[in-house]
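ok so heres the complex, two chains, lmk if somethin looks off
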Amino acid sequence: MLKIDNLHARVDDKDILKGLNLAIKPGEVHAIMGPNGSGKSTLGHVLAGRPGYAVTAGSATLLGQDILDMETEERAHLGLFLAYQYPVEIPGVSNMEFLKASVDAVREARGQEAISSVDFMKQARECCKTVDLDQSFLKRGVNEGFSGGEKKRNELMQMMLLEPKLCIMDETDSGLDIDALQVVANGVNAMRNAERSFILVTHYQRLLNYIEPDYVHVLAGGRIIKSGDKSLALELEEKGYAWLEDAA
Amino acid sequence: MTDFMQQPLTVAAETAPAWLAQVLERGRQQWRDSALPNRKTEAWKYNNLQALQQPFVAVDRHAAPQLGNIRYPQLPGSTLVFADGLYREELSKIDLPAGARLLRFSEADEASAAHIAERLGSAINRSQHRFAALNEATLTDGVFLQVDANTVLEQPVHLVWLTSGQMEAVSVNQRLLVQLGANSQASVVETFSNANTGGTAFTNGISELLLGEGARLDHYRLQLEQGESAHIGGVHAAIDANSTLNSFHLALGSRLKRIDLVVEHRGQGAHCELNGIYLPRGEEQVDYHTCIEHAVPHCTSSETFRGIVSDEACAIFNGRIHIHPNAQKTRAELSNKNLLTSNRAEVNTKPELEIYADDVQCAHGATVAQMDPLTLHYLRTRGVPKDEAEVMISYGFINELVDGVRNKALRDYLKPLLARRFARNDKLTRHILEEESLEQESLEGGHE
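and the predicted structre for the whole thing:
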């Protein structure tokens, strides 16, 4: 699914990723944990092609295709989805218009049949129910005036409608209360299948009680310094990161 | 005084109805006594008046210019169409209930003429507005809408002023006087448009809105002229106690558009909402100078202007709020936001608050920004192509004001017109224009 080799990236002339390696197979869920400033969010933004995030060395392929030279929208068409830690507010562009434009663009690029507005609204309404957002949110400006939790649910709704192959969830759990966390976890778990992979970037082991990962990685100093199964997250919760950073 | 208007001044003096003679004379005097503004005139310092360097001529009264496909909205209700300043009966229709009158100055009987003459210019400070003086000096015809007390017009009154481009350097005078009686309601749409090729025109348009106590007017002034045309003019409103004026303005670019909007609150409890959109591109110039005169206590005003300036175009916004010494308990707000889509685009914005009362609430703000790269990126991470994302963001910047247009027929006309202004092809606007049908679908589906 995803293969990252020796990835180096800088932001504002500061090296953040320093030789990151990661391989993810279809259907796998990988959690990435690590101290603040270690490069967790940067990884997601680099893969999504955010302006100002420059790759200086290394490679990343998604489904066998080199994505680092692709336009951001082409990466989305191929199946990459980044759920933002801080989703962007776009006043004046309604959520509905935004979602339909996204779905149409992705379906067209994937050679799928166009979806009618009737079918689209049916799907959108169902997604609203699943993520527990009132339908009135479809008419509002994208994320405009949404609470932190509502923004995260809106991200999840986009993910459900776009049916990506690889979902990167950047601290989706931060700022969520227990109920909202449960809603998001249920949504993610319902989307899990043999063809779809997930990267969960998180600070808290708690999320992994709801969404069980296949692997847990520790990212520190721009590299993955330790990998293990879900028991690693429990160990981190207990001991913190210092013992690993010292060893690295 | 420069003589670029010499011929129209002479023609007006010879052809205007006799009852307008005094109006013409006072206009002529004021125009003659004042110099043409230049870069050293504070209120005109950003305007390039190069477009007025040639002599203009009034159109022959017997001409019948071809209009081709000049764009203007088709609305229900009454419509009066003028081409190069001349009335076009075959394109017009009058459909008014009892208690409302719509007539041209040139057809006014003695009683109407006296009524109009008494009120014409009563909301205008001619010494401050030289081009309003010029308007009176070259006045040969105009439109008067009168609505009696307690009368409600359900349908809009649409005034369409076209320039055909079939002659060079045509001078067009436009004048409107609206008088709403106490507790009456009306909707007035003014559309200015032209052929996008052909000769140049200079339109000098002045509209006066007089609102009686408790009256309500929804007013729209669409400046759709393109190309080499110039338009200098404005709207002067005087609003009485407990009346409401909602005034919406749109300016697509042309070589020069200078619009002055003046609203004077004359009675307590009056409210005015002034909204506008300007979208100059190429080398076009648009200037809105607004002035709210809070002359009495307990009035409110709210003003929102948004501009998107592209290429090497230039926009000017000057928003003055003047709160007189006794105008206590005034609430006034003003917001002006600008989006620049090119490095060479220019905007000059100045909110101007002059407050002489101590118990008032005022808020104002102006911003100038480029398209936010993170917003653009966010849309692209969801698969939306860059060119479509840019169109969605640009239109989104003015969407709120377009959605605020109360007249549905007009909103349905403006939405595609404005969305397509940002797009090379219709594929890029399809989701903006599809929104309403999705919303409809969502309403119907919601009742499953």
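quick notes: Chain A has a mean pLDDT of 93. thats all i got rn
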